[in-house]
Known about the structure:
Radius of gyration: 23 Å
Distance between the termini: 50 Å
Structural class: mainly alpha
Strand content: under 5%
Order of helices and strands: HHHHHHHHHHHHEHHEHH
Helix content: 55-70%
Low-confidence stretches: 1-17
Shape: globular
Strand order of the largest sheet: 1-2
Amino acid sequence: MITSTAHHARSVRAVAAFAFSLLLGLSISTATGQSLTKAQSEALDTYNKALSVFKAVLIERRAQLDAKQLPEDKPGQAIYLARNQMIGAYKDLTDLVPSKIGRPSKFAFPPAYFDADNEPLLEEYSNLFKAMQGPPGNAQDSATPFHDAIALGTAVGRAKGLDATHANIAGRIVLGIFYAETGGVQNLGNARSGAYKGSYQTGVSEDRIGQKKWAAIKPSIAAFDPALNARDEKEQARVGKRDQRYNHWTGVRNGLMNAHADVFPQIPAIVKVLPDPIDQLRLFELIQIVPTPTRAAIRSGDLLNHRISEPRIMGYLRNNSMFTFGKADRARTSATYREILDAMWLFNTSLRRALAKYDEITADQKK
C-alpha cells in the first residue's frame, strides 16, 4: 500500500519532471543569420515571454490538478488565455519575420500561427482540459454516442421535410457539432464556463427551449420512426428530474432542437453554396456561437458575402478563437462569412475527426 506521503512525493516528482521537460524547450533564438530590426526584436521578445508564460501556467495547473487544489471557478481560463497569447505573439512575429514560419504541426494549425516544436505544450494543454472538465459522477452515458447524434439529426431532418440525402447531411451536422463542442466526449463539463454543459454544451435556458421544441416535433417523428421514439421514451424516463444536459441522448436532442433544427430546411440551399462538408459543419457551429447573425446571413441570399460589423458579435467570434490571434486579426472591425469560415481553423481537427467517424459508421451500416 502506498502511503499518502509517498504518493505526494511521487506526484511532486512527476510535476517536476514535466516542468523540466517543458523548460528544456528553447525559446526562439535570434541566431538566424540575419539582423533584426527593433520591431522584429520586440516581436521576438514578446513571443518568447508569451511562450514562457504558457509553460508556467501549464506547470502550475498540472501541480494543482495532481494536488487536487484546482481553482473552483473556471480553472481552464488562464491556460486558454495564455495559449491564445502565445499563438497571437507567434503570428505577430511571423508577420514581421516570415522566415520564422516552420513546418506544419500535427494539430493542422496554419504554420504562421504555431511553431510545431511546441506540440508537446498543446498536448499537455489538451490533457489538462480533459482532466479538468470530465463528466460529473451522475452523468448518464450512452453506449452509442456517435450513432445517437446521427440518428437524432437524421430524424429531425426528415421531420423538417428533408429528403433522404439531405436528412443524412443533417445527421452528419449534428455529429460534427458534438465533436466541435466536446471533441466527441459525451456529457462534458466546461473548464472555462459555469453555464455551458453536456454533450452539446448548452445552457439551462437553451436546454429548456430545446425540450419544448422536441415535444412539439416528437409526434411526427414517432409516426415514421417508432424505434427512435421508443429510445427517446427510455432516455426520458431514465433522466427523470435530473439535468437533461447530462444525459447524452437528451443533451444532444435538446441542444439540436434549440439551435439547429429550425435551419435544417435550408440545408439543400446551404449545400449548394458550401459543397465542402467542413464548411457546412463550420456554418452550423456558427449557429451555436452567433445564432441570430448566422441565420440572417443564411436568409440573405448571399451567405458568403454577408458581412458582420457589430463589435459585440466580433467579440463573440474572438472569444471562440476567430480573429483572435495577433494584432492584424484583432484589428479587424468586420468580416464576411467567407472570411469567418476561413478563420475557424482551430476547429479543423475536431471536424475532420467527426467526418471520419461519420464515414466509418455509415460504411458499417451499408454492409
